[in-house]
Write a structure and sequence with these properties.
The chain is of the alpha/beta class and 204 residues long. It is 41% helix and 16% strand. It is globular, with a radius of gyration of 16 Å. The model has no long low-confidence stretch (mean pLDDT 93).
């Protein structure tokens, strides 16, 4: 499709958002984008991580295999896809800590006209999934980025509860996804790339 550069950035404690990011990576590569799969740096104390076996397992499995997102990655990419769980209706502190370091890029106009989209997860269907995506988009508006929400542009969104802001999934007490969101994640990824391609070509 294009040579759009897409940075897929996620935070995942037990693996849900990592899986969503991997689906996005697969769709993006199929669409012809140049892709970087990146994780937000884990800042939680080791004791907190060790207190949850699933968290500790996932952290150990990915800490040396998935690169940590950097400011250089933000400048490199034409588009961003964020995959983040909800924390009291907001983004996790690990994500917020990274976003708070982007002032220099923002000040120099390096984040303007980037195309961005986001997905989320929570342990119940009204646990703040939509609000988390909207909270992230608020930062993107300050950047001057262009939000590529999925809306209702594909039937796959209805299988996930019909969230027009960004695909979201409910995770049960056993850590399993309740809704089948893979098709919606992949559609949202392709849509983000399509819009980024249009923006990139249009600004030449």
């Amino acid at each position: 499709m294009s040579n759009v550069k897409l940075a897929i950035m996620y935070y995942s404690s037990t693996g849900t958002n990592y899986q969503m990011a991997k689906w996005a990576e697969e769709a993006a590569k199929e669409a012809g984008a140049e892709v970087k799969l990146l994780r937000f740096e884990e800042t939680a104390p080791e004791g907190a991580i060790a207190s949850n076996p699933a968290w500790e397992k996932h952290y150990k499995e990915t800490k040396d295999t998935v690169p940590v997102a950097t400011l250089d990655d933000l400048e490199w990419a034409d588009a961003y896809l964020f995959n983040v769980p909800t924390r009291f209706g907001n983004v996790p502190s690990q994500v917020k800590a990274f976003l708070d370091t982007t002032g220099g890029l923002w000040f120099n106009g390096k984040l303007a006209n980037k195309v961005v989209s986001a997905t989320s997860s929570a342990s119940n269907s009204h646990g703040g999934q939509e609000q988390t995506v909207l909270a992230l988009y608020t930062t993107m508006m300050h950047w001057g980025a262009i939000i590529a929400a999925p809306g209702y542009t594909d039937q796959s969104s209805f299988a996930t509860g019909g969230n027009p802001y960004g695909t979201s999934v409910t995770v049960d007490q056993e850590g399993k996804m309740v809704e089948s969101v893979e098709p919606a994640v992949k559609h949202q990824t392709r849509r983000t790339i399509q819009i980024a391609e249009a923006v990139k070509n249009g600004l030449k």
